[in-house]
Amino acid sequence: MYRDFGTILIFALLGIVLVYVPLLIQRLVAPKNPTPDKLSTYECGEEPEGSAWVQFNIRFYVIALRAVVFDELGLLAFVEMSIFLGILIVGLAYVWKKKDLDWVKYRVKYGRGRYRGIIKEKPEGGTIGTS
């Protein structure tokens, strides 16, 4: 049982190492000469004035999102995104219809290890147990 958790622990440690080692290397190798010009906020070549912490209305974000989707990416990108989402929805409906989203599988074919010998039947048709 603990062997299963050991695999998860190894993958978690590997993930942490793969994230933090490049950051550590970058910190050691990168030059460290901050100046006021480098630390200032860049605003299209203009001198920054005031605070950048301004709350915008949500309408501006929606309009910007529409501009990105329709103006810059074009109608083709919107159609491609719709087709992709349609494929995902059809796949979800297929899996749902096959009842593969249930938490408990009723029959375990070719069970190995702790699943060997487990045959579950539907609750309305009989008992649930091991054989």
Globular, elongated, flat, extended or rod-shaped: what is the shape? Answer: flat
Derived from helix and strand composition plus strand pairing, the structural class reads: mainly alpha
Mean pLDDT: 79
Q: If you compute it from the alpha carbons, what radius of gyration comes out, rounded to the nearest whole angstrom?
A: 28 Å
- CATH hierarchy, class of the largest domain: Mainly Alpha
Number of strands: 2
- Unreliable segments (pLDDT under 50, ≥5 consecutive)? none
Q: How many domain units? A: 2
Query: What percentage of amino acids are in beta strands?
Result: under 5%
Describe the structure.
- By secondary structure, the protein is mainly alpha-helical.
- The protein folds into 2 domains: 2-100, Methane Monooxygenase Hydroxylase, Chain G, domain 1 (Up-down Bundle), CATH 1.20.58; 103-131, no CATH class.
- It is built from 4 helices and 2 strands; from the N terminus they run H-H-H-H-E-E.
- It has helices at 2-29, 36-39, 58-72, 74-97, and strands spanning 118-120, 128-130.
- Strands 1-2 form a two-stranded antiparallel sheet.
Summed up:
The chain is mostly helical and 131 residues long. The chain has helices at 2-29, 36-39, 58-72, 74-97; strands at residues 118-120, 128-130. The two termini are 22 Å apart.
What keywords describe this structure?
Methane Monooxygenase Hydroxylase, Chain G, domain 1; 2 domains; two-stranded antiparallel sheet; flat; mainly alpha; 2 strands; 131 residues; 54% helix
